[in-house]
Amino acid sequence: MTSDTPHSQPVPAASGAPAPAAREGAGQPLVQLKDVNKHFGDLHVLRNINLEVRKGEVVVVIGPSGSGKSTLCRAINRLETIDDGEILIDGTRLPSEGKQLARLRADVGMVFQSFNLFAHKSILENVTLGPVKVKGTKPAAAKELAMSLLKRVGVDNQAGKLPAQLSGGQQQRVAIARALAMKPKVMLFDEPTSALDPEMINEVLDTMVGLAKEGMTMIVVTHEMGFARKAADRVIFMADGQIVEQATPEEFFTNPKSERARDFLGKILNH
Amino acid sequence: MDLLSEYFQSYLTALETYDVVAALWVNIQLTFWAFLCALALGTVLALMRISPVPSFQWAGAAYVNIFRNTPLTIIMTFCILVLVFQLQLNLSDDFDFNFFLWAIVGLSVYHAAFFCEAIRSGVNTVPLGQAEAARAIGLSFLPAARYVVLPQAFRGAIAPMGNTLIALAKNTTVATVASVPEAAGLMKTMIEFRPDVIMAIFATFALGFVVIVIPIGLLTTWLSKKLAVAR
Ligand SMILES: Nc1ncnc2c1ncn2[C@@H]1O[C@H](COP(=O)(O)OP(=O)(O)O)[C@@H](O)[C@H]1O
Ligand SMILES: [Mg+2]
C-alpha cells in the first residue's frame, strides 16, 4: 500500500468552488459510509471506506481503473452487498433485501456507463415505468412528469422511439431523466460519459452541470476534469479500494498531495 | 395400373372406416392445452431458477433435472397407473375426459422443464444491466422480472420455445398410453386391422404431423425475427 493514510474526515465543502450556489439544507449528511469493507473472493475491493456526502454536495470520484469506484457506487445503491460497515441514506440504514430495500433504492438514482435503458420499451415508457410501478403514480400524471423531464434533458421529441434508435448521448440523457423521475435524494453516476463518442460527451455533462446547479446531491465517477472543476465541491481520489485523498477540485488538480494521485493525474493529463 | 388403383381403393375404405382427422384433432387439442400449461409452469420454474432465493433456485433446478431426464412414457404411465388407478385421483367424472386431462397433465409437467430451460436461455440474452437498472429504479424481483427481464427473455427465447412446442406436438402421441383416442393409437389399430395398406397408413400419419408441425416452425421463425429486441 501507499504511505498515504485514507481520510476519514469529510473535507468541508469547497468555498472557492465556482459553480455551486448556496444550497438549501446543505450540511446534513445524506449519504454516510462507515468503515465499509467489501471483498470479491480474495480481492479486497473496498478497504475501510468512510465517506459523508452532505445534502446538495457534488462529489467527484476519480482513480485508476480497478480501484473500486464502480463497486463503491453499486454498494451505495445496494446493487452489491458489503461485508461489513454500514451505509446510511438520509439517516436510514440500507436494509439487506426485500420491499423496503427496493423502496430505499428509489431514493438513490443511478446512471450507468452503458445507459441500460429498457431495450423493449419506448423512451417515454422507460421514464414512466418507475413512477407507475414503484410509486403507484397514475399513468397520466407519470406521463406528464416524464415529458417534462425529457424536455429538461432535451429529448422530448424522441419520446415514442425505442432506445436503440437514439444516439448514445441521447440515451444517457434519457437514463438521467429515468432516474430523476423517481425524485431521488441523491444521484450516482458511474462513468456516464465513458461509453460516448467525444462529440456527445458535452451534452451529457451539460445536463449534469444543470442538475448540480439546481442543488441535486451527486456522486459522480468521472475523469472529466472540466466537469469536476465546474460542478464539484469535492474530489475523492481512490486507489486500491481506499480513499487516498480528498480535496476541492482546484486543490486536487493543481496540487495533489499523494504520490499516487500525482502519478495518476500525470497519466490522464498526458493523454 | 390396376394394382395401384386397387391399392388406392383399399386405402380409401380404410379412411372411411377410421377417422384420421378426428384423431389428429385430438393431438392438436392436446398440444394446445399442454402448451399453455407447460408454458405457465415453465415460466414459474424459470422465475424460481433466476430468483435470489436459494431454496427456490434449488427447487426449480431439482424439478427440471427430474422431469427433463425422465422418459415421457414413464411419466404418462405413472399418471394413469398410479395416480388414476391406484390413488383414484380423478380430474373429471367423465371417464374419457378424465384421461384426456391426465394426458395434458403428463405432457405439461414434462415439457415445463424444457420451457423453463428455453426461457432461461432467453434470460441469458438479456444484458445484466437491464435487471440492474430495474432494481435501481426501485423495482423488486418480481416486478423487475415481469416488466423488464421476462418480456425481453421471451422475445429472445422464441426459437428454443418453438423447438420445444414442436417436440410437444409430436410427443402428444404418448397420450395413447393414457388411452386417449389420438393419432398414434388410431394408427396402431388401423395397422392391426388393415395391414394391406400399411405403407399408406404410415404415410398418412406422417403427413398429418408434418402438416401440424410445419406451421409452428414457420410461425416461430417469423415471430422471433419480428419481435427481436433491438439493442
Ligand atoms: N462482480 C465482480 N466479481 C469479481 N471481481 C469484481 C467484480 N466486480 C468488480 N470486480 C473487481 O473489483 C475491482 C474493482 O472494480 P471496480 O469497482 O469496477 O473498479 P473501477 O470502477 O474503479 O474500475 C477490480 O479489480 C475488478 O476486477
Ligand atoms: Mg468502473
From TrEMBL, chain A:
Topological category with respect to the lipid bilayer: Peripheral membrane protein
Subcellular location: Cell membrane
Main location: membrane
Listed Low complexity bias regions: 10-25
Pfam families: ABC_tran
Signal peptide start and end residues: none
Family matches, as InterPro entries: AAA+_ATPase, ABC_ATPase_HisP-typ, ABC_transporter-like_ATP-bd, ABC_transporter-like_CS, MetN_ABC_transporter-like, P-loop_NTPase
Ranges for region Disordered: 1-25
Entries under SUPFAM superfamilies matching the protein: P-loop containing nucleoside triphosphate hydrolases
Domain ABC transporter: from-to ranges: 31-265
SMART domains reported in the protein's UniProt record: AAA
PROSITE patterns attached to this UniProt entry: ABC_TRANSPORTER_1, ABC_TRANSPORTER_2
Record has Transport as a keyword: yes
GO molecular function (one): ATP binding
Sorted UniProt keywords: Amino-acid transport, ATP-binding, Cell membrane, Membrane, Nucleotide-binding, Transport
Family the UniProt entry places it in: Belongs to the ABC transporter superfamily.
Protein name from the UniProt record: ABC transporter ATP-binding protein
From TrEMBL, chain B:
InterPro entries noted in UniProt: AA_ABC_transptr_permease_3TM (IPR010065), ArtM/GltK/GlnP/TcyL/YhdX-like (IPR043429), MetI-like (IPR000515), MetI-like_sf (IPR035906)
TM region positions: 20-48, 69-87, 99-119, 197-223
Location of this chain's protein in the cell: Cell membrane
Ranges for domain ABC transmembrane type-1: 24-220
Keywords annotated in UniProt: Amino-acid transport, Cell membrane, Membrane, Transmembrane, Transmembrane helix, Transport
Domain of life: Bacteria
Annotated membrane topology: Multi-pass membrane protein
Entry's family note: Belongs to the binding-protein-dependent transport system permease family. HisMQ subfamily.
Protein name as it appears in the record: ABC transporter permease
